[in-house]
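Please go through the sequence line and C-alpha coordinate line underneath and see whether the fold suits the sequence. See right below:
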Amino acid sequence: MGKLVSQDEIVNIVNDLQKNGKTVVTTNGCYDILHVGHVRYLQKTKNIADYSVIMLNSDASVKINKGDNRPINTESDRAEILCALSCVDYVVIFDEKSPCKLLDKIKPNFHTKGADYTLETLPKEERDVIIKNNIKVEFIEFVQGKSTTNTIEKMKNI
Protein backbone atom coordinates (compact mmCIF):
# COMPACT_ATOMS: atom_id res chain seq x y z
CA MET A 1 0.00 0.00 0.00
CA GLY A 2 1.33 3.42 -0.95
CA LYS A 3 0.76 6.77 0.66
CA LEU A 4 -2.39 7.54 -1.37
CA VAL A 5 -5.21 5.68 0.33
CA SER A 6 -9.00 5.56 0.24
CA GLN A 7 -11.19 7.03 2.95
CA ASP A 8 -12.00 3.55 4.31
CA GLU A 9 -8.31 2.63 4.35
CA ILE A 10 -7.25 5.76 6.22
CA VAL A 11 -9.87 5.20 8.92
CA ASN A 12 -8.50 1.68 9.50
CA ILE A 13 -4.88 2.85 9.37
CA VAL A 14 -5.48 5.62 11.90
CA ASN A 15 -7.41 3.30 14.23
CA ASP A 16 -4.53 0.80 14.15
CA LEU A 17 -1.90 3.50 14.71
CA GLN A 18 -3.77 4.99 17.66
CA LYS A 19 -4.36 1.53 19.21
CA ASN A 20 -0.58 1.10 19.10
CA GLY A 21 0.02 4.39 20.94
CA LYS A 22 0.94 6.48 17.89
CA THR A 23 -0.37 10.00 17.32
CA VAL A 24 -1.88 11.25 14.08
CA VAL A 25 -2.20 14.79 12.72
CA THR A 26 -4.39 15.82 9.81
CA THR A 27 -4.53 18.90 7.68
CA ASN A 28 -6.39 19.73 4.52
CA GLY A 29 -5.98 21.79 1.39
CA CYS A 30 -5.86 22.00 -2.38
CA TYR A 31 -2.05 22.12 -2.69
CA ASP A 32 -2.34 23.37 -6.27
CA ILE A 33 1.06 24.55 -7.58
CA LEU A 34 3.05 23.40 -4.57
CA HIS A 35 5.35 26.13 -3.19
CA VAL A 36 7.72 26.65 -0.26
CA GLY A 37 4.88 27.91 1.95
CA HIS A 38 3.07 24.58 1.49
CA VAL A 39 6.23 22.58 2.19
CA ARG A 40 7.05 24.46 5.39
CA TYR A 41 3.43 24.17 6.56
CA LEU A 42 3.44 20.41 5.92
CA GLN A 43 6.80 19.98 7.66
CA LYS A 44 5.49 21.80 10.74
CA THR A 45 2.33 19.68 10.62
CA LYS A 46 4.38 16.46 10.54
CA ASN A 47 6.43 17.62 13.56
CA ILE A 48 3.27 17.61 15.70
CA ALA A 49 2.60 13.86 15.61
CA ASP A 50 4.02 10.47 14.67
CA TYR A 51 2.02 10.32 11.43
CA SER A 52 0.59 12.97 9.11
CA VAL A 53 -2.51 12.61 6.95
CA ILE A 54 -3.20 15.16 4.23
CA MET A 55 -6.87 15.46 3.30
CA LEU A 56 -6.67 16.67 -0.31
CA ASN A 57 -9.51 18.50 -2.03
CA SER A 58 -10.59 16.65 -5.18
CA ASP A 59 -10.79 18.54 -8.46
CA ALA A 60 -14.56 18.93 -7.93
CA SER A 61 -13.99 20.26 -4.41
CA VAL A 62 -11.38 22.77 -5.61
CA LYS A 63 -13.83 24.07 -8.23
CA ILE A 64 -16.45 24.58 -5.51
CA ASN A 65 -13.98 26.54 -3.37
CA LYS A 66 -11.83 28.34 -5.97
CA GLY A 67 -13.94 28.59 -9.14
CA ASP A 68 -14.12 26.93 -12.54
CA ASN A 69 -10.56 27.86 -13.58
CA ARG A 70 -9.03 25.81 -10.79
CA PRO A 71 -7.30 23.57 -10.03
CA ILE A 72 -4.32 24.10 -12.29
CA ASN A 73 -3.03 20.58 -11.55
CA THR A 74 -5.27 17.50 -11.41
CA GLU A 75 -6.01 15.74 -8.14
CA SER A 76 -3.92 12.75 -9.22
CA ASP A 77 -0.91 14.99 -9.97
CA ARG A 78 -1.36 16.94 -6.72
CA ALA A 79 -1.65 13.68 -4.75
CA GLU A 80 1.49 12.24 -6.37
CA ILE A 81 3.50 15.37 -5.57
CA LEU A 82 2.34 15.32 -1.93
CA CYS A 83 3.15 11.61 -1.65
CA ALA A 84 6.73 12.37 -2.76
CA LEU A 85 7.31 14.56 0.32
CA SER A 86 9.00 12.88 3.29
CA CYS A 87 6.87 14.89 5.72
CA VAL A 88 3.66 13.34 4.33
CA ASP A 89 2.71 9.85 5.52
CA TYR A 90 -0.72 9.49 3.89
CA VAL A 91 -2.89 11.36 1.40
CA VAL A 92 -6.65 10.89 1.14
CA ILE A 93 -8.92 12.72 -1.31
CA PHE A 94 -12.34 14.15 -0.45
CA ASP A 95 -15.06 15.57 -2.73
CA GLU A 96 -17.00 17.86 -0.40
CA LYS A 97 -16.50 21.60 0.04
CA SER A 98 -14.89 20.99 3.45
CA PRO A 99 -13.12 18.01 5.05
CA CYS A 100 -15.59 17.81 7.96
CA LYS A 101 -17.12 14.40 7.14
CA LEU A 102 -13.69 12.87 6.62
CA LEU A 103 -12.26 14.53 9.73
CA ASP A 104 -15.16 13.08 11.72
CA LYS A 105 -14.35 9.59 10.38
CA ILE A 106 -10.59 9.80 10.93
CA LYS A 107 -10.68 11.30 14.45
CA PRO A 108 -7.01 12.30 14.56
CA ASN A 109 -5.22 13.40 17.72
CA PHE A 110 -4.35 16.75 16.13
CA HIS A 111 -5.49 18.90 13.22
CA THR A 112 -3.61 21.87 11.78
CA LYS A 113 -4.96 25.02 10.19
CA GLY A 114 -3.34 28.20 8.98
CA ALA A 115 -2.82 30.89 11.61
CA ASP A 116 -5.26 33.13 9.75
CA TYR A 117 -7.84 31.11 11.73
CA THR A 118 -8.55 30.77 15.42
CA LEU A 119 -10.80 28.16 17.00
CA GLU A 120 -13.52 30.80 17.13
CA THR A 121 -13.21 31.73 13.44
CA LEU A 122 -13.11 28.20 12.03
CA PRO A 123 -16.22 27.31 10.05
CA LYS A 124 -18.84 26.16 12.57
CA GLU A 125 -19.17 22.65 11.10
CA GLU A 126 -15.40 22.10 11.31
CA ARG A 127 -15.19 23.52 14.83
CA ASP A 128 -18.08 21.27 15.93
CA VAL A 129 -16.34 18.14 14.57
CA ILE A 130 -13.09 19.12 16.32
CA ILE A 131 -14.81 19.74 19.66
CA LYS A 132 -17.00 16.60 19.42
CA ASN A 133 -13.95 14.38 18.80
CA ASN A 134 -11.64 16.17 21.27
CA ILE A 135 -9.12 16.93 18.51
CA LYS A 136 -6.34 19.34 19.46
CA VAL A 137 -5.91 22.12 16.89
CA GLU A 138 -2.57 23.70 16.08
CA PHE A 139 -2.46 26.94 14.09
CA ILE A 140 0.57 27.31 11.82
CA GLU A 141 1.89 30.63 10.50
CA PHE A 142 1.99 31.10 6.75
CA VAL A 143 5.10 32.11 4.83
CA GLN A 144 4.47 35.73 3.84
CA GLY A 145 3.83 36.29 0.14
CA LYS A 146 3.75 32.59 -0.73
CA SER A 147 0.46 31.37 -2.15
CA THR A 148 -0.82 29.64 -5.25
CA THR A 149 -2.90 32.71 -6.07
CA ASN A 150 0.22 34.91 -5.91
CA THR A 151 2.08 32.46 -8.16
CA ILE A 152 -0.74 32.49 -10.72
CA GLU A 153 -0.87 36.30 -10.70
CA LYS A 154 2.90 36.51 -11.17
CA MET A 155 2.69 34.10 -14.11
CA LYS A 156 -0.08 36.19 -15.72
CA ASN A 157 2.19 39.24 -15.58
CA ILE A 158 5.13 37.59 -17.31
The longest helix spans residues 7-19. The mean pLDDT is 93. The first strand starts at residue 24 and ends at 29.
